[in-house]
Write a structure and sequence with these properties.
Radius of gyration: 15 Å
Order of helices and strands: HHHHHHHHH
Largest sheet: none
Oligomer: single chain
Shape: elongated
Length: 116
């Protein structure tokens, strides 16, 4: 039950700074991903989440409407193929970054653009 409450709190746009700091250190990657997606998460915490050990957390940043381009530029070059694959499926990504992914060395990532 605690994890469910943390997940809900991580998505709340009225989240307190104290709660953000606590949830950013959650052992549950789904809570951290939800926090990465939250437009109210402070920039400093987003930077930390950009370097999270779990790829799903890093991918979650691409769904945050306030994430700035440098974050996305780093994510399209992420070592985790699942992160790049998730980005390739995100049609909201800027076209030039989708073009980078269309030339990805991993065929699963680059094929996202060849299945029309």
């Amino acid at each position: 039950m605690k994890t469910v409450n943390e997940y809900i709190a991580a998505g709340d746009l009225r989240i307190s700074q104290n709660c953000v700091q606590k949830l950013a250190r959650s052992r549950n990657y789904e809570v951290r991903r939800r926090l990465a997606e939250n437009a109210s998460t402070p920039y400093e915490v987003l930077v930390d989440l950009l370097h999270d050990d779990h790829g799903d957390v890093r991918l979650g940043l691409s769904f945050n409407p306030i994430v700035q381009r440098p974050f996305l530029e780093e994510l399209v070059r992420d070592d985790d193929v699942d992160v790049r694959f998730g980005l390739a499926e995100n049609t909201a990504l800027p076209v030039d970054l989708l073009e980078v992914l269309s030339k990805d060395d991993n065929p699963y990532v680059s094929r996202c653009f060849k299945q029309s």
